[in-house]
Each structure stands twice: as structure tokens, then as C-alpha cells.
Amino acid sequence: MKKRTSSAFDLVSAEARKTVDGWPETSRGLFSELLEDAPTDLQRELLNRAVAAGHSAAEVHAFADALRGLGDVEVFDRCTVDHQVAAGYSVVQLLKAEADPLFAFKLKGGELSPRDDAPRLPAGYSPPGSPNRPRPGFELTDPRLAQHRFDSGAGPALRKNPRAAHELGQSPEANEETVLKKNPALARRELGESAVAKVDGPSAPRASMGAPRPRPSLGAVAASPGSALAPEQLNEALQSLGVSFKEQQVDGPNQPRLEEVMAQAAQALQKGLPVPVALGPAPGQDRRLALFLQLQVSGKSRAYQLFDVLSQELAWINEGDLFARAELPFASKQNRRITRIALPVSRF
Amino acid sequence: MPQPQRAAPSAPFANRELNGDVLLEELSDLRSGQVLHRHLVECVKELRELGGARAVEAAAQLKALATGRFAAVPPLALLLTRWAGRLKADVDVPLLVGHFERLAMVGATLTVLRRSAERLPKGGRG
After folding, report:
1. Three-class SS of residue A75?
2. What are phi and psi of A315, to 5 degrees?
3. Which of A179, A233, A126, A213 is nearest to B109 (CA)?
């Protein structure tokens, strides 16, 4: 398992940078993505001006969401106040609106719904772009060298630490059959007879199953309730590459089994298509998002490489361990199974 | 009758982490260097034209892209030049094209997922 870091921020104006420099790393990363996602230069300029005017990351995020679906003409109309038809506004308001597009947007009746809580990072987390973070070379990731390290000394330690062994593609742990045979209750639960499933039942409302709560936003492409993986946005983002996604929940009542969808996921991965998934403690409870990057097949065994989107942990997972639904090799142990998957299809 | 030996990819392309750790590192560098998704998509479209090209031709084409079309995007130009130098066998070419396709796809997918995670309980950190 590896902790990863990512980038600094893109396209930030000199005026905004002074403010952005004081933000936490996650907020800076988010702002960078907002600029990247903004469809036009006008929207990027407005976001930079909103930051320079001193608005919080959450406000700017909501502002970006509100603008994203609009054309330049409408954006300009909603973020500027025309002096000729602004009889109802005070001079102070007009001056402030001129300098602050977010203020003008609100002044003209626009509504924003920023999140109150800024995302928190786990203790000890190395932020993206930290200067002392070493960049791994090929020699550190070459499996043959890793195997050599395993065989020559590190082996015993890794055998005691199955998670470390996972990183090397080893699976010294018992396979799924052994795990399930030793624990019939677990086996029954993994076969779909979970307590959660019994309580909720097939017709239980999504909200009671820990469904994602879509954040209201103006103008942005709205995710339909329950679509944790945002397939509409995925399709939009990857349309130019000829890839589309079909999202589905797994292991719940009237839902496909993980084993069934992973067969399709394996085919997609072998074609080079990444497979987004949600992780959680039980079917229907989406808690984290992750991405299958690749699949390695050796004889009858398969190993999947999974990347946790927010914690940036990267791990190889043996298929048997994945199907056991008992634990995933990430720091958060409660999210032990795949709850949802977006299967990709490519036109090429 | 002895069967002809199948050509093996060069070491960088045989690396198990080519489309894992290496890809994520490259993606991180590209994002740090303000390379936009559309740049990667344009690059992928150019590289898809390399289908069936020999390693030498492909390397030359990569260098031409780096000094021509993507000269204004230095991190991407640098990446193209770096990979051009690693192309040794003809079998490396489709692996390289696939690598850049994955770069573009994974980059776009991660951007969407990071934003989607905010809708989950505890902002996707639960």
C-alpha cells in the first residue's frame, strides 16, 4: 500500500494566488480542479476574481458549480450589474459587485450552497506536491526487483505482514474458500444475507441505506440520487476518448453479485479501461470512491490494482481477498467491500 | 520445428507498475505542470495514428510532437521525449499508445471521482 501525492494548482491568477497560498492543500487542489473544469476563460477569470475578493474555498466551489452549466453570455449577465438598470442598488453595492463577481451573482438573486465542512486529511498524510517526497523510479517498482527483495530477506517480515506482501503481489493469506469455510456466518453474509439487507429490504428508501446525498448546485450537471460514481459526469469527461460508463450497485437484493460484475470489469481492465468503484461496509453503503487501474493475471490467480481517490492509497488486491469481502488493504478497515461499480465501454 | 521467439517489450514497458504507480506519478507531474485534460486527449488522438508503426518511426513521431504541436505544453513535451527514448522494440509502440490512453482516461476519471466523493457521507472519507 502506498500513499500518493498529487499536484499543485493550475491557472491561478497572481491576485488569487495570494489568497490561495493561505488555503489548506486540499482546498488548493480543489481550486485547481475547478479552474481546470471551468469550460471557458471567462469562468476561470470569474473564479480567480472571486478568490481574490476573499471568498472561502467552499463558496468558490459552489460558485463554480453554479456557473459551469451556463454559457458565457448568461454567466456575464449573472455576474455583472448594469449601471443603467441598477436603480435598486446602492453605490457601495455597485462598486463591490464590480470587483467581486460572486457578490454580483448573489446580488442578482443567484443562490449558492457551499459545504460547511472543509475536508480533513488523516494525521500524517503527506500533502500532494510536498518537496521532500521522493519520486519512485522504475527500479523501485520493478516487480522482478521486488520479488528479489522478497526472496532475500524481506520475505519473513512480509509473510508476517500480509499487507506488505500484497504490495508485492503475494498472497500468503488463506484464499477466499478457506476464509469462508472457517466462518459460515461470514459466508452467509457475503452471499447476500446481510443484516442490513434484511432490515432494509428491497423496497427500502435509498436514504436509509447510506445513499449519497447529492449537493444542490445551480447549473452544474446534477447527479441523480444514488449515483455515487456520477456516471453522467464520467461519460461527459471521457466522451472525447470514446469511453462511456454504466453504473450499478452490487451484492444487494436484486442486484448482481460482485463476482459477476468483476468478470466484466476484468475484461475492461485488460482492454486498458479504468473501472471506478465505491467501497463500503455493506451493500448499498457507499463510503469511499476508488479506481481499478489494472489487472494482472498469473495462471489461475488474478490481482487487481486499486487506487483510493482521496486517501491516495494504491494497493494490489488478490481476487480471492476481494471476493471474500472481509477486508481491503487500505487504512480504513471498515470499508471492506465493493458496493458499486461503473463498468466502462469503449468505442475503440 | 522450433517456434519463433515472441518479441518481448523493453524493460520500462514490461514494468508491472507502468500503468499503476508510474502512471499516477506522471499524472501528478502533468497536473503540477498545468497540463489540461484536452491536451492529453489531443495527444492521445495523435498517438493513435501510430498504430502499426515501427519503434524508430514512432520515436521520431513522438519527438516531432514534443517539439511541434506540444512545444507550448512543456511537461507533456518532456514526457513524450522521455518515452521516445525508451522505445526500443516494435512491440513497445502499442504499449506506449495504451499508456497515454490510460493517462488521459485515469486523469479525467480521478477528477470526476474526487468531486463526486464530496457527496458521500463525511465527504467520501468515511
Report:
1. helix
2. -145, 150
3. A233
pLDDT class of B78 with cuts at 50, 70, 90: very high
B13 - beta bridge partners?
none
Q: Judge whether residue A150 has pLDDT over 60.
A: no
Among A11-25, A212-226, A233-247, the range with the most confident prediction by mean pLDDT is: A233-247
Q: What's the Rg (C-alpha) of chain B? A: 17
One-letter amino acid of A149: R
Chain B residues whose CB is inside 8 A of the A265 CB are: none
Of A115, A237, A272, the CB nearest to B98: A272
How many Cα atoms sit within 13 Å of A144 on the Cβ side?
Answer: 6
Instruction: Give tens-digit pLDDT for A207-226.
Output: 333 333 333 333 333 334 46
**What residues of chain A lie within 8 A of the CB of B101, using their CB?**
241, 272
Rg (CA), chain A: 24
Q: What is the DSSP string of A91-103?
A: HHHHHHHHH-HHH
Residue A153 makes CB contacts below 8 A (sequence gap 6+) with: none
Question: Measured between CA atoms, how close is B97 to chain A, in angstroms?
Answer: 11
Q: Please give the residue of chain A at the shortest CA–CA distance from B124.
A: A288
Strand order across the beta sheet in which A313-318 lies: A2-3, A313-318, A301-308, A288-298, A275-280, A337-346, A243-249
Vertex A149: Cα angle to A160 and A151 (nearest 5): 65
For residue B10, how far is the Cα from the chain centroid?
A: 16
CB A37 within 8 A of CB A10: no
Spell out the long-range contacts of A165-171 with Cβ–Cβ below 8 A and sequence spacing 24 or more: A166/A1, A166/A315, A166/A316, A166/A317, A166/A318, A166/A321, A166/A329, A167/A1, A167/A2, A167/A315, A167/A316, A168/A143, A168/A316, A169/A143, A169/A296, A169/A303, A169/A316, A169/B16, A171/A301, A171/A303, A171/A318, A171/A320, A171/A321
For residue A331, give the C-alpha cell. Answer: 487504512
Q: How are beta strands A301-308 and A313-318 bridged, if at all?
A: antiparallel
Q: What is the mean pLDDT of residues B73-94?
A: 95
Q: What's the rounded Cα separation, in Å, for the pair B92 and B86?
A: 9
Chain A, 106 to 135: residues with Cβ < 8 Å from chain B are: 115, 117, 119-120, 122, 128-129, 135
- Distance (Å, rounded) from C-alpha A4 to C-alpha A29? 14
Beta carbons of B21 and A136 less than 8 Å apart: yes
Angle at A7 between CA A342 and CA B125, to 5 degrees: 50
Euclidean distance between CA atoms B112 and A328, whole angstroms: 23
